[in-house]
Design goal:
Layout (H helix, E strand, L loop, with lengths): L1 H16 L17 H18 L23 H23 L3 E3 L5 E3 L6 H29 L3 H15 L5 E6 L4 E6 L1
Parallel strand pairs: 1-3
Antiparallel strand pairs: 1-2, 3-4
């Protein structure tokens, strides 16, 4: 019970910190896991995103060290390859986010938020989204397996990490207390 209370306080503090952004209220993230596990997932998410955005602090590229058992369907080689592919397409992703063509949904996946683009641009963006979401899913599932948590909880942590890194004006699917549902809002 004490762990749940500590987790609640931690998440409440995170939520209150979000008020400083240009969203009509704090972001609500409902994660039910032990605080120590949550902290490790947050560290994994930050480390992975630092690699993608070239913001590594200690030069370490080892997210999934050898000797740790993983699901057979997701190996550290696959994770490293997914991170590498995400790193190669990050410039395009940032451009599409900055122009408001795409946004991040509550599952930490990208979606088109603009319709009516020229067909060649529309196809390119949709292809990029599909590739990016596939690689994100590889990373999310490996992180969940590594930490012994549900992948939906990992997606929520990555969503928070992406929200923190995003520039003002980026689209995010956020729960609106006022409307009682998820809606697309700019950061």
């Amino acid at each position: 019970m004490k762990r749940i209370f500590v987790a609640f306080l931690l998440l409440a503090a995170i939520g209150c910190a979000r008020v400083q952004h240009r969203v009509s209220g704090p972001i609500k993230v409902d994660i039910n896991m032990r605080v120590d596990v949550y902290q490790h997932v947050v560290e994994d998410a930050r480390s992975i995103e630092d690699r993608i955005y070239n913001e590594e602090k200690d030069g370490s590229n080892l997210i999934f060290a050898s000797g740790v058992a993983y699901a057979e369907e997701v190996s550290s080689v696959e994770v490293d390859a997914a991170i590498k592919r995400r790193k190669e397409r990050v410039v395009n992703i940032m451009r599409y986010l900055d122009r408001g063509y795409i946004g991040e949904n509550r599952e930490a996946h990208l979606e088109m938020v603009v319709r009516g683009l020229p067909s060649n641009l529309d196809k390119e963006i949709k292809r990029t989204i599909k590739e990016e979401n596939r690689d994100r899913e590889i990373i999310h599932r490996a992180t969940a397996k590594k930490r012994g948590v549900d992948v939906s909880d990992v997606r929520k942590v990555f969503f928070e990490e992406h929200y923190k890194r995003a520039t003002a004006g980026a689209w995010f699917e956020i729960y609106s207390e006022k409307e009682g549902k998820y809606v697309w809002k700019r950061k």
